[in-house]
Amino acid sequence: MSDDVGNDLLKRLEDGVLWITLNRPDAGNAITTPMRDTIGDWMIEASSDPWVRCVVLTGAGEKGFCTGADIRGQRRDPPPKPEGAPERIVGDAARVIRTGWGRLVQSIMDCEKPVIAGVNGTAAGGGMHLALACDLVVMAEEAKFIEAFVRRGIAPDAGGAYILTRLVGLSKAKELFFFGDDVPAPEAYRIGLANKVVPRADLEKTLTEWATRLASGPTKAIAFSKWLANRAIDSDRHGAFWDEGYAQELISGTADSKEGMMSFVERRPPDFKGW
Predict the structure, then answer these.
(1) Which residues of 12-45 are buried (b: 16+ CB within 10 A; e: fewer)?
(2) What is the rounded CA–CA span in Å between residue 164 and residue 177?
(3) What is the CATH number of domain 219-265?
(4) Do 30 and 73 form a contact (C-beta atoms < 8 A)?
(5) The domain 9-77+85-215 belongs to what CATH superfamily?
(6) For residue 115, what pLDDT is reported?
(7) pLDDT interval class at 49 (50, 70, 90)
(8) What is the distance between the alpha carbons of residues 228 and 79, in angstroms, rounded to a whole number?
(9) CA–CA separation, 197 vs 194, rounded Å?
(10) Which residues is 13 bridged to in the sheet?
(11) What one-character DSSP code corresponds to residue 60?
(12) Which letter does DSSP use for residue 38 in this model?
């Protein structure tokens, strides 16, 4: 873990599940720049780590899952500029967004392991998109989503327009973006932003149950299922069927695929290893 992160992020690996906890409850678990970059690094590393078969991303405390970027937190100084150059050059701000929160969100979407968001409290702005980038979302009954950007007079970032529009449709996404109203957990479930809503006391138990199931599954088959589903929303029919064919060809050669077939023939539960 980066020294800049300290105890702001907690990380533990248990029974194939990598638990990542945002640990700034007094600040609504707002994410600093070092935290943002570290989570992205961990997601990328999880793809190639055979010990990791599922990732859970959650927040400490009861009030906030993540309230977005900590605009008062630590920022990195830009490199020195040539004499006469303006303080901000065209492309600088866009690059910061793209390589900052954009990189973080895409690291979750591209992670080859399933990622579950355990939304324990308010997920606002970038924090909402952080949760929605995950493959599955489990919310505490008291939790809520807020598209808070309009409240600050800014446009959504952190992949929000791309992700939210595909989850709830164009008209509903515009409503959430334009008004920035709270979306309580039951409503989030109703419109497809959450897979499950549970009492807060049952959140960790539910996350453990789901993560354990995924961690004991055929990890590569799940990875390709994630890849195919993510690509399907952007590809045409011919491209989707082409991807499907190659995915099946690659998966059929894995040890877990052979184990799945053998266990069926032998009428016993499969023992998947993750490769």
Answers:
(1) eeeebbbbbbbbbeebbbbbbbbbbbbbbebbbe
(2) 9
(3) 1.10.12
(4) yes
(5) 2-enoyl-CoA Hydratase; Chain A, domain 1 (3.90.226.10)
(6) 98
(7) very high
(8) 40
(9) 7
(10) 18
(11) S
(12) H
- List all residues 6 or more positions away from 27 whose beta carbon is below 8 Å from its beta carbon: 64, 67, 70
Beta strands 54-59 and 144-146 are: unpaired
Instruction: Give residues with Cβ within 8 angstroms of 14, minimum separation 6.
Output: none
Higher pLDDT, 144 or 72: 144
Torsion sign across C-alpha atoms 80, 86, 90, 96: positive
The residue extents of the domains of the chain are 9-77+85-215, 219-265
The residue with tokens 């690094």 is 41
Token duo for residue 194: 């959450």
Which structure tokens are listed for 13?
Answer: 């690996």
Residue type, 171: S
DSSP letter (8 states) at residue 76: P
263, 216 in Cβ contact below 8 A? no
What is this structure's pTM? 0.89
| H-type alpha helices, 65-218 | 92-99, 101-110, 126-132, 160-168, 170-179, 185-190, 203-215
Angle at CA 11, nearest 5°, toward 6 and 13?
Answer: 155
Q: Which residues pair with 57 in a beta bridge?
A: 20, 117
Sign of the torsion angle spanned by Cα atoms 74, 76, 80, 81: negative
**Residue pointed to by tokens 């082409």:** 242
Q: pLDDT tens-digit profile of 6-46? A: 899 999 999 999 999 999 999 999 999 999 999 999 999 99
Rg (CA), the chain: 20
Phi, psi for residue 215 in degrees, rounded to 5: -70, -20
Token pair in block for residue 262:
């053998």
